[in-house]
Amino acid sequence: MVVFRRLRACGLLLTVFLATPAMAQESSPVQAEAFAIHAQSTYVWQRKPSFASPYQGENSLSGSRATSYSLTATVDLGARLWEGAEVHFNGEGSQGIAFSGLHGLGGLPNGELAKTAGSDMTFYRARAFLRQTWGLGGGREAVDADMNQLAGFVDKRRIVLTAGNISVLDVFDAVSVSHDPRTQFMNWAFMAHGSYDYAADARGYTWGAVLEYIDEGWAVRAGRFMQPRESNGLPLDRRLGRHYGDQVEFEKSYAVLDRPGTLRVLAFRNKANMGSYGDALAAARGGTPDLAAVRKERAKLGMGVSLEQGLSDRATAFIRLNWADGKTETYAFTEIDRSVSGGVVFDGAAWGRPGDTAGVAAAINALSASHREYLRRGGAGAFLGDGTLNYGTEQIAEAYYSWRPLKRLWITADAQYIRHPGYNRDRGPAKVFGVRLHTEF
């Protein structure tokens, strides 16, 4: 009955979205929209076979066979207020059951599963923001209609202010082929820099503002956003002058042998009440360390470099290199202190299936020395805690094929292989197989 209810809910959402052709009309990029409604729905089902697990802790990925699912639906209402200004409101609903309560991995296998996931559908506001664009000349370029974006034209040289309730990843670290778990790679290690502990509540959203200067071929942006009141919590700390997540990013477009590419360099600094691994180890005096016992106001620093490069008209490669200082607990994203990831995404037009895509990617995740020792001594983090640790880098490979049988429907088969899950050589490897249904208008 539970499976039936999930499938019935997913089918109902797909039917509603696919049966609204009047609302799903695509605006011409040469015609500015004054108002638009967009929506999406995504269902992900995953299965994990059993794997070698000689021991488990409170935050381990279970070695037993298990299934997981997520279902999300989002509606975006957008309106143009005046020249250069648009406002958007997103209502969202989500439900799902994660493997082992969303524990046991650095790179978790489903980017659609929020930390507040549960078996009952929950509705909430996901976004409510204003985007103001000031044109500075340099010619005009088209903006296509999309979620949280009205069709129209903007100056190639412009200043853009986005303020309100958004996801930091709406603006930063936007690698075009490895950014959206609803249509691309599913693993958290590929949706952003793994060590980018960006400010967000437990659903992935926050309040703040970002200012961008965009010119033809390059851009620079900086933003400040609210942190959660506690590590990976849902309520946000509204003391934006005291506790915050700051980030700045430089972006440069280029061409190699007439193939386009984009370089992005990102730096971030977080300030919040966080526990230090070193302090927790010292306070434990040989016992089990506890981050909660040593929390105080601290800062976390990190940076990342990403590169995406066209290999042909039908293939794009990407790579991310990132690092965080690894001194303090994970506060809003996932337990990764250093990571390198990369892959290639192919357009189905190369084999006569325009609209289809296929991708392969791999990531190597690592922890700082104090983070490793904390886990080895039996400490528990936001996502990790096997009770002990025989450390090894966590290695992830993912491959997917996205089939587009209808204009507004994508069906994806996905497979993931995770060596040393939770950075533990004694456990795994874990395998995850999944199917994703996605529709949008």
TrEMBL record:
<protein>
    <recommendedName>
        <fullName>Porin</fullName>
    </recommendedName>
</protein>
<dbReference type="InterPro" id="IPR038673">
    <property type="entry name" value="OprB_sf"/>
</dbReference>
<dbReference type="Pfam" id="PF04966">
    <property type="entry name" value="OprB"/>
</dbReference>
<dbReference type="InterPro" id="IPR007049">
    <property type="entry name" value="Carb-sel_porin_OprB"/>
</dbReference>
<keyword id="KW-0732">Signal</keyword>
<feature type="signal peptide">
    <location>
        <begin position="1"/>
        <end position="24"/>
    </location>
</feature>
<comment type="similarity">
    <text>Belongs to the OprB family.</text>
</comment>
